[in-house]
Amino acid sequence: MKAIYTLGIETSCDETSVAIVKNGREIISNVIDTQIPIHEKYGGVVPEIASRNHIEAISRVTKKALVEANLTLEQIDAVTPTYGPGLVGSLLVGLSYAKALSFAMNKPLVGVNHIQGHIAANYITYKELEPPFLCVMMSGGNTQIIHVKDYTEFEVLGKTRDDAIGEAFDKVARVIGLKYPGGPKVDKLAQKGKPTIDLPKIHFENMDFSFSGIKTAVINLYHKNPEINKADLCASFEKTIIEILMENINKAIELTRIKTVTLAGGVSANCYIRKAFMNLQQEGLQIYMPDLKLCTDNAAMIASAGYYNYIEGKRDTLALNAIPNLKLSSVF
Fold first, then answer.
1. How far is C-alpha 230 from the chain's CA centre?
2. Within 10 Å of residue 55's Cβ, how many Cβ atoms?
């Protein structure tokens, strides 16, 4: 079978990334130009600054990805950019560049949903993984439980009604004095503490989430008592978050009878969360989680998802636009 090379472009937030993936599973190159040092002094991503830096980096990153892959644009089968969700200015940079490549090289343009990309990161890490399975999607902008019925067919079983899980982590970090990006720093500090503080949890009959209440409770506790043990506060926050995740994934397993569970998104790099899900293997579940380097935003996961869209026949025109609030739905 002829190898299919997809060129993924990811610029949904503050990472300019271009990757080339073979047959949806094998990374040939994956170049990531991060803006974290730039946004760190602002305590979070500044959209206008992110867009300008994507413009500066996109051509350079693309050339580097091709050099590392030892391939030319002529050898690429499809150009697969993220077109949502994300920051609209950032998305437009990558999507516009992808359109130009597609038009100039006469290559198919195949748009990719960023969330679908995060799910596909598992296909790169685990060559044997195939749908159907459940996916717990956890990032700065999304928290969802997804029934992955096929490579391009999805059903969202539950989602956050307010803050995304990564957003809650970052806001807690900012209030207690930890620098951006806050999630990894909360995780690191939690390892030094004990989960001795009771925090509220909101329960729904379905599999939806709410993280606003727990975030506000942590912030209020800290404001009332700035001398509180921050490590214990972080450990208690993470413990409560994990209990919420576990409650809903168990509902999803009971509903679907599916015993294969994957993690996806930047927060899936959290060591407490990874350990808690790995412990589910003792209950007869199969647990998959991406390599740490594939948890955060990268173009390899986009190229992998783009491959499956491409072989299923998805093609987009140059009229494809950035959709900052794009929802996850089946490709067809």
1. 27
2. 17
The one-letter code for the residue type at 6 is T
Same structural domain, 195 and 61: no
Tally of structural domains, the chain: 2
Q: Is 326 within a domain? A: no
Q: How many CB atoms lie within 10 A of CB 253?
A: 18
Closest residue by Cα to residue 274 from 184, 206, 156: 184
Distance between CA atoms of residues 309 and 2, nearest Å: 17
Mean pLDDT of 66-76: 98
CA atoms within 13 A on the CB side of 98: 39
Cβ contact 272:238 at 8 Å: yes
- 317 domain residue, yes or no: no
Cβ-proximal residues to 124 (8 Å cutoff; 6+ apart), any chain: 21, 25, 26, 27, 290, 291, 294, 300, 301, 304
pLDDT at 76 over 80: yes
- Claim to verify: residue 269 and residue 204 sit in the same structural domain: yes
The DSSP H or E segment spanning 310 is helix 299-311
Identify whether residues 189 and 247 lie together within a single domain. yes
Single-letter amino acid, residue 197: I
255 lies in the same domain as 140: yes
Any domain includes 316: no
Q: From 330, 292, 324, 332, select the one nearest 141 (Cα to Cα).
A: 324
CA distance 253 to 249: 6
- Among 137, 91, 82, 142, smallest CA distance to 112 is for 82
Please indicate, yes or no, whether residues 45 and 160 belong to a single structural domain of this protein. Answer: no
Residue 44 pLDDT exceeds 90? no
Dist CA 94 CA 80 (whole Å): 10
Q: Is the dihedral of CA 246, 155, 165, 309 positive or negative?
A: positive
The mean pLDDT of the chain is 95
pLDDT at 329: 87
Domain that holds residue 263: 132-290
Q: What is the pTM of this model?
A: 0.95
CB 30 within 8 A of CB 102: no
Do 19 and 303 meet the contact criterion of CB atoms below 8 Å apart?
yes
